[in-house]
Amino acid sequence: MDLSENPIELERRAGEERGRLVGLPDDDERAAQWLRWRDASAAAQAAIGAHAGEAGLNRYEL
């Protein structure tokens, strides 16, 4: 997880990963894609939290 990346770009990437879930059957391919989405979302949320902390805010205030 690279927290030096732009939080907005990380959030966009997470949305793209989520979009790739559409139409996948319930099998190993879907499970693998779900994990990619989860990891991308976690990276985005961590970056948002770090950015908020640097600004003296909590992530919800940001």
Describe this structure in words.
It is a single chain. The protein has 62 residues and is an all-alpha fold. It has a domain of 42 residues. It is 65% helix and 0% strand. It is built from two helices and no strands. α1 packs antiparallel against α2. The protein is elongated, with a radius of gyration of 14 Å. The mean pLDDT is 89.
What would you say about this model in short?
The protein is mainly α. The protein has a domain of 42 residues. The chain is built from two helices and no strands.
Key descriptive features of the protein:
62 residues
Describe the secondary structure blueprint for this structure.
Blueprint: H1 7-19, H2 28-54
Q: Count the E strands.
A: 0
Beta-strand content bin:
under 5%
Distance between the termini: 21 Å
**Estimated structural class:** mainly alpha
Instruction: Name the poorly predicted regions.
Output: none
Largest sheet: none
Q: What's the gyration radius in Å?
A: 14 Å
Q: Overall pLDDT, averaged?
A: 89
What's the helix count? 2
Order of helices and strands: HH
Give the helix proportion (percent range).
55-70%
